[in-house]
Amino acid sequence: MQSRLLILLALCPSSCAFQLVGFNRLQNVHTSGSNRMRYMQPSSAIENDEVKARSRRLAQDKFSNDKRVPRTELLAATLDSVVDVDNNNHVASLWGGFDIPMPGPNTVEAATKVLSASLLITGNTVGSSMFVLPEAVGGVGLINGSVLFLGLYLYNLISGLLLADVAIKLHESSECEVPASFKDFADAAMKSETAGNAIGAASLLINSCFLAFGISHAGHLVANTLSGFGLEPTMVAAGFSFILATASCTQTNHGLEKIANVAVMVLFSSFASLLLPSLANVSDPLGTILAPGTNPEGFAPAAVAAIPLILSSLTYQNIVPSITKLLDFDRTKSTTAIALGSFLPMAVYIAWCFAALGGGLDNLTASGTGGAAFTAFSASALIGSCVACIMSLAEEYESIISNAFSREQYCSVNDKFSIPAVTMAVAPPAAVVVGTGCSDLTCTLHFCGAFVTPFLYGLLPVILFQTISKKDGEMASYPSLGSTILAGGAVGCIGQEIIHDISQMIA
Q1: Which of 154, 228, 365, 369 has the most Cβ atoms closer than 10 angstroms to its Cβ?
Q2: For residue 161, which of 322, 339, 311 has the smallest C-alpha distance?
Q3: Structure confidence by residue, pLDDT tens digits, 437-449
């Protein structure tokens, strides 16, 4: 019988042979002990119809019980060919050699968590400091300012990744969770109470300065927006501080994260509504990009004045320990969140400076719609930045309170900040704002960018990382070039600021 069929195939045209093979269609057989598919050769003409019917019923039962696969006419037409869908979210292909991965709930959840952490970094970075950046960037020119932004972004990225690795190493070498506190980092890595206190004080100082600057600008923003009510900026700043403190006491860490994320979403939506019309209103885009610096003393003095402000405006490392904790101390997730969350503020700042220097922003805010978008943008930037600063300050004060009343280190991890920690975090910056009459505190940003930031986020990450690596008996996995850039940049920034201040005093 088989020999007759072969002779017939040889004599028939190709179309007839095709029809004959189609008549003897491929049958799929499930291989026991495996989720793969195996395809048989064309069956003989005398194959038992009962076997074919049973194979079809097995395929139909399998697909009807799998709720992941929708019932369609195309599916019904291919039930004779497809038998199995494996249990690992892979669809067995008709080609037999490919597996198509299906995104599972864990993948979506992980991506959402990383994105949420990235937005928290962005909300912590983009704050009221951006309102003083156009003048600083205009002094060196937009092109040179963009280069400074990119260089300082990479500088902060190296610093942030080193700090994240320190937090993860502390977590891996500890029997319990590690609180997000720079003081605890120093206590664990350097075994020095003096060093821990100095680092904790520097962290408290820089975050308090940023929080005071944000509270002051919030007071002026609300008072100017609601000018018809005759509100005093000082009283508005005090009320804003009270609202922040109440939210920080009553919300969990994840609740505060959600508040910051909502603020970031409003920030980007309002920024888009501001940026696109502002770019259209720029009369000479190319001229704005190529315009030289406006500082009459030249590029070097303008750069000396701009670098501390840009560096402090791109600072986010205070929230890195909290980010690693929110991402379960996962290196890949933490790296992705830090790189993405710190890149977005740089792009926002450069676009903001371009629109402001080109005159498009002033023309837009003069209108009612543009003014409302600018108010929403400013308010969301202030809220997101202040919430992140309070989280970082409260972490430090929680560590101080825990060490003062308990000898247990690192194991006391709470999902909600205590009232004393929040009070200590908000009260000093608010008192400074009220005591100065809600005056402009731009000088605090310059001071932090010139002295505190290079020490805390330049020298400290290198010291902590090297100390922990030696303690664990490991060679430094991070390129030595990164540590050299951090240490050299920190020393150079502090040195040039000291020289500049001395020259100003002599003059």
Answers
A1: 365
A2: 339
A3: 888 788 888 888 8
